[in-house]
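worker-03 picked up job from queue 'complexes'. Input manifest follows; four sequence lines, order preserved.
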Amino acid sequence: MAAERKGGVTISQVAKEAGVARSSVSRAYTRPDMLSPETVERIKAAAGKLGYVPNHTARALSTGRYGNLALIVPDVANPFFPPMIRAAQVEADRSDFCVFLGNSDEDPEKEDQLLGRFSGQVEGIILASPRLSDERIAAHALLRPLVLINRDVKGIPKVLIDSGTGIAEATQHLADFGHRNIVYVSGPSTSWSNKQRRAAVRRASKKLGLELSFVSASVPSFEAGLQAVDAILAKGATAAIAFDDVTAQGILAGLGERGVSVPGEFSVVGCDDALGPLTVPSLTTVSSRSIEAGKLAVSLLLEVLESQAVRDASYVLETHLIIRSTTGKAP
Amino acid sequence: MAAERKGGVTISQVAKEAGVARSSVSRAYTRPDMLSPETVERIKAAAGKLGYVPNHTARALSTGRYGNLALIVPDVANPFFPPMIRAAQVEADRSDFCVFLGNSDEDPEKEDQLLGRFSGQVEGIILASPRLSDERIAAHALLRPLVLINRDVKGIPKVLIDSGTGIAEATQHLADFGHRNIVYVSGPSTSWSNKQRRAAVRRASKKLGLELSFVSASVPSFEAGLQAVDAILAKGATAAIAFDDVTAQGILAGLGERGVSVPGEFSVVGCDDALGPLTVPSLTTVSSRSIEAGKLAVSLLLEVLESQAVRDASYVLETHLIIRSTTGKAP
DNA sequence: CTATGCTGTGCAACCGGTTGCATGTCAACC
DNA sequence: GGTTGACATGCAACCGGTTGCACAGCATAG
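worker-03 finished. Artifact:
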């Protein structure tokens, strides 16, 4: 009968069963062309009989090829990330890689820690929207192939979602509707995306001659958006561009509480298209392309692993405005 | 200067630097009490100087303790899962475990494959809402500790979210509002949760003397909800209980398109509280406790690992109705 | 002053594979 | 018919840790 012990069947047991050396069993799996077809068959038969499954870990130790990669995100539960995670997953799977997922909870320390924990058992790491300092990121990149998403550190390959283009379109869109005074509700100060969006809205406003002010929602959350509403209204603006969709949604709720109709009296634009058309009224937002970013980051990482060269590649994904129902003519 | 070679610093290098045997370095980390305090300190100093990080994989090979666990879900992007994933992550982290994440894409085959791929490098696996057959699940459970979420297979430890209690409350809530004819919009047929919810709404309706009919939305998605609206209205019902929040959201959108006001003319109840209060109007729903489920599943798994005994434990989490703004008096 | 026991450290085998090199066999070639 | 070389396989070292056991040194007990 087939062995069923918890410990698992080893290469030695198969070797004995098939009457060959351990190395031959190994080769039957890794380089069958080196062995005669009959031997391979005999080994496979013995392996099948015993229920042998190669030990991933042991193999990783001697080859240094782990067949694993890690993906670290600040918050799994933020709707921006799940589609990205999923895409990365699928892409990794296509090349037989397993994915470790890390959640840093928006905490740089935690991120650092996770990086250390994973680094011993993966071939490469993808850091999405890291909150870590450039120096620490660079340090980790020395130890192990690293690909960044939405962060620009010199010399490290990256995938950037350029929300600047979409934000510019959004600003134009609001100007077209006659808005003259708008607010940008900013996100985490350590976020590269936030800096980029903030700069884009500033640039576009200047060009279009709009009056622009800032309100800060330090974390991207529904509550933060809700709480920002009074400050937004105090600015005398007629439209707001929010750091992300979740914040925008909070703003919508807050406006609703205060009886301000959207888009009749006030227009709102989100960013990242994380909620899709799921909301009522549906949110005008900037596309995020997070799915492509996830997929691209993985294939870029695999490419780096294969070529050994640390190519300083950057992929930039442009974004566009998605017009739905929360924007309209200025009152 | 600190070594910077890609390969990483090994225990031997540290041993040489500190002038001790490899075993002492190992013990400095695993059983410092066996060494004199000065020696430990000297080793740690040398390790720090060289930038030594213990190799997780090598350790796993010799101890058989991988320090990894896998979590497999049908769809990372379904908002029900991210909070659960996050909670599992955090709980695993507390015990220094790393988490592999698998996405089965709602495909039983894929699930089976992932299970196989992971099983060589983890100590245990958590299967959330599996679509796999009972037999295959049982087979995998023989090889390696397994904990289920929202699936009931005899002899395997599990965490069940009992949405029955919440659904019963929802039905009662609708009856209290004078609804006499309601619809249950069902989810995936292979889903244990769907079976359970369907049974609960049937039981409660019978007890309360409500007229109940069924509409099927085979996958839980916004579109499926949207498309179910005509069928729902055709039943002559005044309220619907949906398999989950995403479906409910689709139903809301569909009703909006047809000019049916909510909750004035029609009431809608979701399930899983996956969207929180993020929507407008905010959705009356059944709490999901997915966060607790994720956390519990991990601690249960760790317990099983520790005790070696395959306890046939079940944790059942009761749910409750969360009343928001999509339910009201029957027209 | 020798027997006993404890503490701190080193030696070497082991975890389960991979891989460079050596060896043996046999056919083709000169 | 001896040499050459290709091919199939085995040996043994190695990946980077862990751990049982041996042993040296020293203090305490008899």
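worker-03 released lock.
Residues 163-288 of chain A form a domain with the Rossmann fold fold (CATH 3.40.50.2300).
The CA atoms of residues 161 and 284 of chain A lie 18 Å apart.
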